[in-house]
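re the bet — no i am not wrong, look at it urself. input seq straight from the record:
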Amino acid sequence: MARGASLGQTPSSELVLRLDTTPYVSATVASGMKGIIHILTVIIVEDSPPMQQILIKLVGTEPSLELVAVVDNPADAMTALKKDQPNLVILDLALRAGNGIDLIIDIKKHKPECRVLVFTAYDAEQYRIRSTKAGADWFFSKNRQHRELVESLSNIAAGIIASGKSAPAKETK
């Protein structure tokens, strides 16, 4: 068990796990026991409506992710970043109204703890390098790594939770 964590079970069968730096919420699980669900907030920055829909569905399949905004340009992304305080931004590099690399730099400047996942058709190594140098945490190609993104999203969420950078506790029903 991680340092600074406590695990206990109350008489009402509520399992409680508290990490000093990881917010949590209590939720009833299928067995009727209480459990802990970490919620990570997500912004999608994508200007293609069909791809937006794919990413919305993808984020919706991961119980630890909560979609707080979908925007199609860097200016709206920065507004949403300041308003919604996300843990994760999923963005495309090729945006009609701006540059994804510059957006990564702006995100990291204003909210350095926010994780950035690039999901783009610009899959040449030069874009991967530039994205990483700008501060991107993950890089996936729309052309070749769609399946890997789907398979990796829950691991990415778990990694953010483990790092202690999950969202404030939210009530779940």
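see?? Residues 1-33, 165-173 have pLDDT under 50 and may be disordered. told u. also The two ends are 28 Å apart (CA to CA). so pay up
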